[in-house]
Amino acid sequence: MRILQLIFILSFLILHTTAQKYSDLHYFKWDQGAIVQGNSTKKRIAFVFTGDEFYEGLNTISNMLDEAKIKGSFFFTGRLYRNTKARKSIVQLSNAGHYMGPHSDMHLLYNDWSKRDSLLVPKDALVNDLKSNYQSMKALGIQEEQLYFIPPYEWWNHRVASWCKEMNVQLINFSPGTGTNADYTYPEMGPSYRSSEKLLERLYAFEQQHTLNGAMVLVHVGTDSRRKDKFYDRLAEMIQYFRSKGYSFVRVDELLSN
Q1: Digit-coded pLDDT (tens) for 211-244
Q2: Where in the chain are the domains?
Q3: Measured distance CA(134)–CA(81) in Å, rounded
Q4: What is the homologous superfamily of the domain 28-255 according to CATH?
């Protein structure tokens, strides 16, 4: 009788956990097979940082996160993980408990900008590139249990997402409407340029209208030297502002796990 009771209790717990997991997935926002927003019923934000050839803001970002006592999520190309000048800072980020993920090994453009369904790389090239990215992480002692991946250029399609899924890797991206991904632009780009002040204004306005519940807010860890107005310098300001509005800050694996 006791055995039957134990089996019943275990079965209930498993079913409850599974139901909770799928309930949370229901609140996620998806695009082309990638998760672009976590549970919209919870007042939590994940800052996601990407980097490739530019990385001059690594220490500034690390210090601001440490001072705020929050964990970020960093997605770097294999090139950056292999960069000996950046190695010390990257290892420190990992040792500090921040999430570390891939951003493709050589920052490939997977599909056409104007025809999203048109692939520019074959499956084997994508798979080998991503494997190389993970190998570069492993060489630094970095291995995350839950595999999340922000695609290069933050651009992908359903086929790319499905290929990643076959590798047990879940594609994710910044939340639509946040707009901070334009922090790489510089004045010489003309109308495409967005100053840090304009980026903040847009982000704050978007939050007031839609909230940032479950949002992933992207910040580049470095930019072309022609951009003097570095958006990552405003990170502490963003943290303070959203904290005052009741938000908490978590790693992406926590944002997307419950």
Answers
A1: 999 999 999 999 999 999 999 999 999 999 999 9
A2: 28-255
A3: 9
A4: Glycoside hydrolase/deacetylase (3.20.20.370)
